[in-house]
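WARN  no MSA supplied for this record, continuing single-sequence
INFO  ligand: magnesium ion
INFO  echoing inputs
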Amino acid sequence: MATILKPNKENLREMRKFLRLGELVAVPTETVYGLAANALDPKACQKIFTVKERPHNDPLICHVPDFESLEQYCETNPFAKRLAEAFWPGPLTLVLPKKSIIPDIVTAGRDSVAVRCPSHPIFRELIEGCDFPLAAPSANPFAYISPTLAIHVQANLGDRIETILDGGPCHLGVESTIIDVRDPKSARILRYGALPIEQIEDAVKRRVDRPLPHQSGMSIAPGALPKHYSPRTMLELRSVPVLEEELQKTDGSIAYLLLRKPSHSSSSNIHWLSENGELDRIASQLYSKLRELDAAGYKKIVVEEAPELGLGRTINDRLRRAAFQ
Ligand code: AMP
Ligand code: MG
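INFO  complex generated
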């Protein structure tokens, strides 16, 4: 079983040593827990694919301590800089033309690389002492629900990795927003994420393109596969709120996952993601609730869609993929 380590100075030093030797470490970020490796070491990155059973056509995000360090790894441009100034450190991933130092395995052979500077204080402390970027996809088996607690990583990958750095619950709870800025004139969101697209547009005072609808087998972003982030239990997504009458009638074999606390019904199969429908709270609770319900042996999980704006787009994007059959 993997050891869950407290993030003290000594352990962080050990983890850096581990990473330098080409080993994997599960680490907390403000989005979800990541499975980190030295991004300049192809053998170490190969271990990520093996442990996650991740297909090799799914590229990894490289994590860096700041925008300045990007020069070593990719071509930057003023638009990328502007976004980084507005949102780094934070949950925004930039796709930029890569330099040759980044191994092909990281980018799945593409000539672009995805880069992000996380804000989690423990991750920052870890990476500031590393002289290499960290490739770190979510620390879960491919296509399962991402982990937002150290014990989630332990439950899924505990027998495949040695160490998990405990940073407490991930504060945002959904993955980063990915934006393709290779050509600033046609910047496009590739994946909805923890940073709402409206905030990006406000900051840059212009519209950015939305993700393209999925084209089977040709998607640029495998995180954009129709089935992803999925529990094993069947998930039924409702585009309108579940009525109290339905809740009153349930027999307990179906779990209800509501956006907000219901006013009357209470029964052990009725769960909610927030008191009053706050989107940031819903996003931060989503994966841990799905995991909890997935483990509880229900026949089905019925879940409500969020309003389609701000973080609601990200929540719905994840729910649609989780519900895809
Ligand atoms: P995650 O597994 O949450 O770390 O997300 C990694 C995702 O980032 C991949 O599945 C892709 O969707 C996206 N990504 C990484 N690198 C690139 C790239 N060079 N171009 C486009 N998307 C990328
Ligand atoms: Mg993932």
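The chain has a mean pLDDT of 95.
INFO  checksum written, moving to next record
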